[in-house]
Structure formats: C-alpha cells, structure tokens
Amino acid sequence: MTVARDAAPLREPGDPMTGPDPVAPAIWEEVELTEEDQELRKKLIRVWGDGPGLWGWIRSTSHASIGKRYVVTAFIFFLLGGLEAGMMRLQLSRPENSFLGPDRYNQIFTMHGTTMMFLFAVPVMVAMGLYLVPLMVGAREVAFSRLNAYGYWVYLIGGLFIYTQFFLNTGPDTGWFAYVPLSGPEFSPGKRVDTWAQMITFTEIAALAGATEIVITAFKHRAPGMSLNRIPLFVWAMITTSFMIIFAMPAVATGSQFLAADRLIDTHFFNHAEGGDALLWQHLFWFFGHPEVYIIFMPALGIISSIVPTFTRRPIFGYPVMVMALITTGFMSFGLWVHHMFATPIPQLGQSFFTAASTMIAIPTGVQIFCWIATIWAGRPRFATPLLFVLGFFFTFIIGGLSGVMIASVAFDQQAHDTYFIVAHLHYVLLGGAVMPLFGGFYYWFPKFTGRLMNERMGKWNFWLFFIGVNVTFFPMHILGLEGMTRRIYTYLPETGWGPLNALVSGGAVLIVASVALFIFNFFRSLRHGAVAGDNPWGADTLEWATASPPEPYVFLYPPVVQSRNPLWTEGRERPVFTGLRTDIRDTLVTTTLDATPDYRQNSPNPTAWPFIAALATGVMFISAIFTAWGLVVGSVLLFFPLVKWGWPDRHDQSVRYSGRGEIVEK
Amino acid sequence: MKRYKAVGDVSELPSVVFGKRAITWWGTLMFMFIEGMTVAVCAASYLYIRKNFHDWPPPPTPLPSLLIPTIGVITMLVSIVVMRRVQKAAEALDKPAVTTGLVVMALLGMALVALRFFDFRSLNTHWDTDAYGSTAWASVAFHSTLLFFEAIETTVFAVLALVGPWEMKHFSDAEDNAMYWYFMCGIWIPVYVLLFILPRWL
Q1: In angstroms, what separates the C-alpha of B37 from chain A's closest C-alpha?
Q2: Do B49 and A212 count as a contact with CB atoms less than 8 A apart?
Q3: Residue A33, Cβ density class (10 Å: 0-12 exposed, 13-18 middle, ≥19 buried)
C-alpha cells in the first residue's frame, strides 16, 4: 500500500497539537500490550538493559545511551566553541580593544573553528544518526554496537585532550585548517599544532566508526518491507553522509599524519626546500574539507525532511527526486574542493571546472528546497517550533547559498578571499544550513529522547532570538568583508571605519547567546516539568514514533513490518510485526539489502568495558605520539590485548555452538 | 487501542550466513573503502611530489631494489591461494581444515611482516632524505599497518581455532577475514608497481 502523492492531508485542523482533537484517528493511539506482550517485555528488558551504576554506564553499548551522551557531549563542545566566539566578538566590538592579545586571539579563533567543525558539527550529526537511524529503520540496535561505544570514547578523549592542552596554553593557533608552512616545524615550534593534528586523528576514527555503523544498520537491519524506496529521507541523508565520511576523512587523517611526521621525525612532505609542497596540504585538507561541509549539512536536510511532513500533515512531495538530490549532492561535493584554493596558482582549466562544479551543486539543493516548499504549500502547516526552525533555514541558508554562488566565481573570490565576506558566507551556510535544522530537530525529537515535550512558548522565543541574532551578527560581515576587513585579525584601527558595524555584529552575538541560554533553560526545565509526550506526540509517520518515549532498551518488542513509505499513517488499528526472535539473547533481525526481506538472525554482542579500555589505549598511543614516534609502538602493544578481548567469544555467551563437523547446536 | 498483529515468524531463520548476506562482510567492505582510500591518498601524494623533481628518484638516491619486494609479492600471491582454501573450508564448516589453514596463514603472515622490514630497506632512501623518501616511506608504512594488523588478526583466529570456544559465527568471520586478506594483498600490487618498478621510467 502506498500513499498517493496528492493524498489529502491526514489531519483536520484542530488536531491535538493545536487543541482538543475531535476525531482522534489511529495515528495517535498507542499499542495495548497483552499479558503475553508484558511477559516478553520483562524478559527483553533483562536481556537488553545496561547494567546498573557507573560500571554499567561505562560498559554500555546501547545505541540509545551512546547516542544520547554523544549528542550531549557534542552540545557541550558547541557551548565551548560559542564561548570562544563570544570572546572574539567582545575583542572586536571596538577598534584597538585590548581584551585579548594577538597570541591568545590566535588560539581562540583556531579553537573556535576546530571545536565547531570537528568536535561539534560532525559528531552531533553522526550522533543523531546513531540514535535515530536504528529507530527509524525498525532495528533494535546498530550493527557493531561495541564499535559504537569505542567511537564515542575515542571522540571524548580527543576532545578532552585538545581542551586540556588549550587550558595549558598549548592550544593550536594556526587556524582550523592549519596551513603549512605556518603550521610546519619552522614557523610553529612547540606542541600546539601537534595537538591539533592528533585531535584530528581521534575525531576521524570516531566519525569513521559511526559512519560504518550507520551504513550497515541502514542496509542490513531494516524492518521487513522497508525496501530502498521506503527508507525515510533522514536515513537516506545519513547513508549518503556516512559514505562521504568514509571517502573524505582518510584524506585529512593522512594529511594530518604527514604534518605530524614533518614536525616530529623530519619528513619533508610539505617542506619546499626538499621537494615537498605546501599545496599538497591544501589539496589533502580540502579534499576532505569540502565534503565536510556537506557532511554537516546533509543530515540537516534529513532532519528537515522529517519535520516538514509531520507538521504539514502530508507525505513529502517528490520522494524519489529528494533521494536522487541527496545522492547527487554527495557525489558532487567531491568535485569542488579546489574552490577553496582559488587564490593559489592553479591552472585556468581547473579554475573553470571548479567554478562550474561549485555553481552546479546549487541545483540538487534547490530541487530539495522546492520539494519542501511544495509539501508545505499542499499541506496544512502548523507553525510549531520545529517548523519555524525549518523556515528560518530557508531564509538563512538561501542567503548563504547565494553568496556561495558569488564566491564560486574566481574573479569575485580573489577579491573576497580571506575577508569577512567569507566568514559571513560560511556562517550563513553552517548556522542556517545545519544549526537551525538541528535545533528544530532537538525540539522535534526531544520527546523521543526524554519522554517529555519542550516548552513551546520558550521554543518560539528561542527561534526568533536565534533567527534575528544570526542575521544581525552575520549579515553586516558581508559589508565588512567588502570594505576590506580580513579574517583572523585581533584588532583594527579606528580610521578603518569598521567600528560601528563591528559593534552591531557583537550586539547580534549577544542575541545568539541569549537564544542558546534560553534553549538550555528550556531543556532542563522540560526534562522535569515538560508535558508527558507519549509514543507519538506529533502524529508523525516514521517508525521511531512506534517506540516508547524514551524507547525501552530493546526498542521494538517485535520487529515491525513496513507496508508503505509512511508506515504509521497507513497501518490502521493493527500494527503488523514479525515474531520469533529469541528472548534469552540479544537477537536482532537482518534483512536483505534491496527489498528488506527477513534473511537471518544476528546476535548483538553483550555490553562490555573492552571498547572503553581500547579507547584509553588508543588515547595513550596518539597522545604519546606527539612526543615520540615510539608512542605508536607502545600504544599498539597496549591496544593489542583489549582488541583481542573485545572480539574474543565470551564463554557465558555462547549462543550458537559448533559441535563437530557441520553440526549446529543452539543453546 | 491498537494491537500487535503477527504477520510472520522468523524463528526458523539461520543465525549464521556467509558472504554479502552477513553484516560482518559489509563491515569488512567499509574498512576496505576507508583503507583503500588511504592508500590512494598516499599514492596520490607520491605522484603529486613527482613534479617538484627533475629526476625520479632524485639523485643521488639510487633506484629502489627489486629482489625482496618481488619475493614479497610472490609470497602474497601464494598466500592468496592458501587463503582461498581456508575460505572454502569455512564455507563447508570444515573445522579441522580451517584450523590447519589458519595456522599456515598465520605463519605466512609473519613471513610477510618479516619481508616487509626489508621492503623498507629496498627503497634505498630514508623518510627524512627528501620528499621522495617521505612519500615512498609513507606509502609502504601505511600498507604495513594493514599487513601487520591482518597478520595479527589471522594469528588470533588461528589461536582461537586451536584453543578457543569456536562458535558457528567464526566460520563466517574466517570467511570475511579471507576477503580482507585478498584486499590487503591486492592493494599492495599497485603500490609495489608504483614504488619499485615505475621509478625506472617515471
């Protein structure tokens, strides 16, 4: 059964989201558990639950626990990055200010960019994926849940490491893309850049681990019936993003190892005197760095595609085109990296090619925007906070996209390069394109994460303060850039005339701070006092809303069966499920990649502390490696035992034993 | 209120499968993408640096030696044939043959690690000589991490087969391990050609 594209809106005005609902349809009803179901529930909680206390917390491999702590950790880094931005805005609010000196300022802008890109934006999107993808595809757990735990711990250690170094005045100070030769051994002695390079390694490992799990969960753990053309768009966005991570991150991981080697063991990758090449660094960095922008942005597109149908009460317009647009964007994002290097001597043919490619990538994004507008147009929009953030995205992101098309042109880029025009552009795209949808996503899925709704009134204030704040902060930066104000200067003279606009920009930043503070207040207040949500408070269509809020450890009592692209809107009064998974071990269902027909049962591993211990060993390896290359050897030895223990079968946990040639004994 | 309605039962489905049906096969494939990409980045850096030199290898660095690396490549090709037999045995759930095969493979892996030590010497340059030396060493070094970890993994599997609690799923894991072994050997061949043979003409 599929929903026709022009199906009538599923809800009449006056639904529970705007007031009492006269005819509550089946969508809002929760499943009533029979006695048999209750028995099963008790058994499954025993099998799937995390152990108690701190030890249970460390051992946990549950995607929901790890996903939540991943999101919270990334958000704390967002606040730290925001604090750094606030300090920069304070310093620049008037000419010849002396709040920060040049050295401190260098560290702070580097930490701001590094934190926001590597410790907040990518991890938070991966984290949302790790939490939501299994729920949306109807799986009990991600594939390779122990790898998931390892990825989180490695990320946390990397983040703590760079911040410890920062507080010890060894924070990196060469910008978030650490261009050589400035970041090389000659111009940046000491350990500051090494800290940066090694933090990259930590976060890349974490991102690659997350990406692998997301792809395989989405390919192999889908609910029966969820063929490729029924996968929720958020999941498609995460699949594409994960593949981009897999193909982009190795470039920067290798590049940062080259940089570390140049600094530690006198290699000459980037040393011109010995035949090395500074532009090699730029190529390696931006071959990752440009897809990176889309790695941050594409999950946000997925979030929007989840919010829009729910709040307009109609299936998304143009689903196949949306999927094609996501995949096209993923491919094209690998053909743009040189537009970051227009100010370097690259061949003219290259300039033309990358200009054309950079302009062209606006097409698939434009297609998606038109599809969303069509969905809203044909639906019955209800302007709750999540949808407001989506509308804010349209406005802000389109401005950022247009300035992007401008700087795709080499002639213009050479004027604007390294000025505040670029700062304005990238913040419009990232705040508008990723952070606004992310906030919308927080409001949207908060009830799923916690079981309670966030306060709507504060949410609206949150949105408007953020929306106005972002535009007041970043729009004037375009003008400052055109007036010649360059990036990364810690102060400027009154004669430049940049004072008033900078004061305005800093004033805008205050609004953003107020908005985020309000969000945090709303978050904590709603955790305790928010309205109880129930399974599906928004009347949404995807499978995550078929679970309890917050989901039980086993997530789905039975593997759900999907019969349309909008399963919860079409299921009626009976929820189709498959039975027969084992109840004494962590049994999960694996389906075929294309059509999602049930294929085999996979035993998901029990919780264990070995991924945590392996992450600690990884930490020792990389951190000691900034002092001596022997650190890698010592670290590998330390890593050996936990890795073996991680995969070694647990004698208490033998689900399927081998008992001689060809015989299988199930315990 | 809604109810659950059972529309099918999965209790008869197998719990161990082989090849691309298995999630471990997909996991292995993803790691092959990641590591293949990294090898490609190393090779691209090597070629990118080429334009900064008039002669390749830059004098006075001599051409890389061929003998040991070629022995290494031949050993790899032999190991692929042996690994193929291990894979077949795993698919047939033939535990004794898998055990013997894994022990042989572990020994071959150690031999390859030992040969790799001499591969570095055969480059006839050092990582800190010039950018040629740096990129050539990096390419061999990165592949060595793959070789090293695959040799260790195979050894651990061999030990598991000898002493450990061998479960059904380990047949499937042994099969995926074979796939990774082919990848590890297969991707070395272009690196070998690039680093040891092509400098004669580049």
Answers
A1: 6
A2: no
A3: middle
Q: What is the ipTM of this complex?
A: 0.95
- pLDDT score recorded for residue A380: 86
- Calculate mean pLDDT across residues A442-452: 96
pLDDT tens profile A86-118: 999 999 999 999 999 999 999 999 999 999 999
- Test the B interface: residue of A1, A280, A286 with most B CBs within 10 Å: A280
Question: Reduced to 3 states, what is the DSSP secondary structure of residue B2?
Answer: strand
Q: Closest partner residue to B26 among A34, A219, A657, by Cβ? A: A219
Which residues are registered as beta bridge partners of A578? B8
Q: Which of B14, B20, B156 sits opposite A600 (nearest CB)?
A: B14
Residues in chain A: 667
* pLDDT computed for residue B2 by the predictor: 84
Question: Nearest CA to CA, how far is B86 from chain A (Å)?
Answer: 15
The count of other CB atoms within 10 Å of the CB of residue A661 is 11
For residue A590, what are the β-bridge partners?
A: A600
| Residue A144 CA, distance from chain mean position | 19
Cβ–Cβ gap B13/A261 under 8 Å: no
B13 with A601: Cβ contact below 8 A: yes
- How distant is the Cα of B70 from the closest Cα of chain A, in angstroms? 26
Identity of the residue in B17, B94, B134 whose CB atom sits nearest the CB atom of A599: B17
The two most distant CA atoms of chain B are separated, in Å, by 83
A222 strand-pairing partners: none
Best A36, A140, A601, A644 member to test B by mutation, with max B CBs in 10 Å, is A601
Cα(A165)–Cα(A387) distance, integer angstroms: 40
Strand partners, A598: A591
Transcribe A231-296 into DSSP letters: S-HHHHHHHHHHHHHHHHHHHHHHHHHHHHHHHHS---TT-GGGT--HHHHHHHHHHHHHHHHHHH
Shortest alpha-carbon distance between residue A398 and chain B (Å): 33
For position A25, what pLDDT does the model report? 53
Nearest by CB to A216, from B26, B53, B127: name it: B26
B135 touches chain A (CB under 8 A): yes
Q: Which residues are within 8 A (CB) of A44 and not within 5 positions of it... i.e. 6 or more apart?
A: A552, A553, A554, A557, A583
Q: Is A144 close to B23, i.e. CB distance below 8 A?
A: yes
Tell me, letter by letter, the H, E, C secondary structure of A76-93.
Answer: HHHHHHHHHHHHHHHHHC
Q: Which residue has the tokens 């048999």?
A: A36
Cα separation, A520 vs A525, whole angstroms: 8
3-state secondary structure of B85: helix
Q: Are B164 and A644 in contact (CB under 8 A)?
A: no
Q: Does B91 touch chain A (CB under 8 A)?
A: no
Q: Which residues in chain B have Cβ-Cβ distances shorter than 8 Å to A344?
A: none
- Hey, CA dihedral for A9, A13, A18, A24, is it positive or negative? negative
Phi, psi of B8 (to 5 degrees): 180, 170
Kindly list the distances between the CA atom of residue A340 and the CA atoms of A344, A354, A484, in Å, as whole numbers in the listed order: 9, 10, 19
Contact A259, A178 (CB under 8 A): yes
Task: Quote the CA–CA distance of A294 and A371 in Å, as a whole number.
Answer: 19
Which stretch of DSSP H or E encloses residue A602? strand A598-603
Strands (E), B68-128: none
pTM of the model as a whole? 0.94
Residue in A212, A284, A598 nearest the CB of B27: A212
Inform me whether the pLDDT recorded for A555 exceeds 60: yes
Summarize pLDDT for A466-483 with one digit per residue, the tens: 999 999 999 999 999 999
Distances from the Cα of B158 to the Cα of A651, B101, B107, B110, B173, angstroms: 18, 8, 10, 13, 12
The pLDDT of residue A653 is 53
